[in-house]
Design brief:
Blueprint (H helix, E strand, L loop, with lengths): L6 H8 L9 E2 L4 E3 L6 E3 L18 E7 L5 E7 L17 E7 L4 E5 L1 E5 L5 E6 L2 E6 L4 E4 L18 E3 L5 E5 L5 E6 L5 E5 L4 E6 L6 E5 L9 E4 L15 E5 L4 E5 L4 E4 L18 E3 L8 E2 L3 E3 L2
Length: about 300
């Protein structure tokens, strides 16, 4: 599945780079040491076999994402036990919940959103409320990102503003408390640094190389975030929607500005990478039942291997 609710694509379609970055300089990227604060250990590097047993109960739902090693499945399940009924914009009667299932022991962890998945499907970015959590599927670790700015912008059809992977998935970036900078982590080395903002930082996208990032900044003194005017009900609702539309923006203007490692600022755009959140795992195994034409199925689900 390639998500249809990519933020960068939505921004480009709406021509939303309201205002332009100006060239100039701010403090260069500042290196900081990685931290283990907020890390919850799983069976790190577990060699235990993945369970062939069914999971997820007999409720209706769909697989939103899965890790390439087959261990973790993000499962969106509808609350009502009966066949789901959808509104015009894809909202489901009774709502839905999200769990991440660990196929080592079939345990479930509740989350609110799958925010992003790296192209290699090793890392998942999740949210609990408005707090971002990084899942490393190879190490079996869930990590609450320290010092994250957890204030929501209440844009239901954009990804949460707090964190995102870079286009090619080499880096993770998250907005730090008080929206003063984007913290960036190289996922291969664990090295971290900060890209400072000159005004409140709404969102940010780290570069895959170098120490720069694209920052979406709002004017100094802004008390709110930009608001997308849309009839879209929620990010995943679009797969069930008969129609929805986008009607411009409200709230403060914002500028998309690239800030490099030396602090040089230039007007920019957001570069999006390809994403496939779910598919066969590295062993060629799939999850059944498949979603089919309806976009959902009735559980329980299980791992099926060739």
């Amino acid at each position: 599945m390639i998500p249809a609710y990519s933020l960068g694509i939505a921004l480009a379609l709406l021509g939303c780079a309201a205002g332009a970055g100006t060239s100039g300089g701010v403090a260069p990227a500042v290196l900081v040491a990685p931290s283990t604060e907020g890390v919850q250990q799983g069976a790190e590097g577990s060699t235990r076999p993945l369970s062939p047993e069914p999971f997820g109960e007999d409720r209706y739902g769909f697989v939103e994402a899965s890790s390439a090693n087959g261990r973790y499945v993000a499962l969106r399940r509808f609350v009502e036990r009966d066949e789901p009924q959808f509104g015009h914009h894809g909202e489901v009667m009774g709502g839905a919940d999200l769990v991440v299932v660990d196929l080592v022991d079939l345990s479930e962890r509740p989350f609110d959103e799958v925010v992003d998945v790296t192209p290699d499907r090793r890392f998942m970015l999740l949210s609990v409320g408005d707090a971002p959590v990084l899942l490393d599927s190879v190490r079996g670790r869930f990590e609450a990102l320290r010092d994250a700015d957890t204030r929501s912008d209440h844009n239901a059809c954009l990804g949460p503003r707090q964190a995102v992977f870079s286009a090619a998935g080499a880096r993770l970036g998250w907005v730090v408390d008080q929206a003063r900078a984007l913290r960036v982590r190289d996922l291969a080395s664990g090295e971290e640094w900060s890209v400072p903002a000159s005004t409140p930082l709404w969102r940010g996208w780290p570069d895959d190389e170098g120490r720069g990032a694209v920052l979406a900044e709002v004017p100094a003194g802004s008390a709110e975030w930009p608001q997308q005017h849309t009839s879209c009900a929620c990010r995943w609702c679009n797969r069930f929607a008969m129609s929805f539309g986008f009607y411009g923006w409200g709230g403060p203007t914002f500028a998309l500005t690239h800030v490099d490692g030396a602090g040089v600022r230039t007007s920019s755009e957001v570069t999006e990478g390809e994403r496939r959140w779910h598919g066969p795992d590295d062993a060629g195994c799939t999850l059944t039942p498949e979603d089919g034409e309806r976009g959902y199925a009735q559980g329980p689900w299980r791992r099926a291997c060739p």
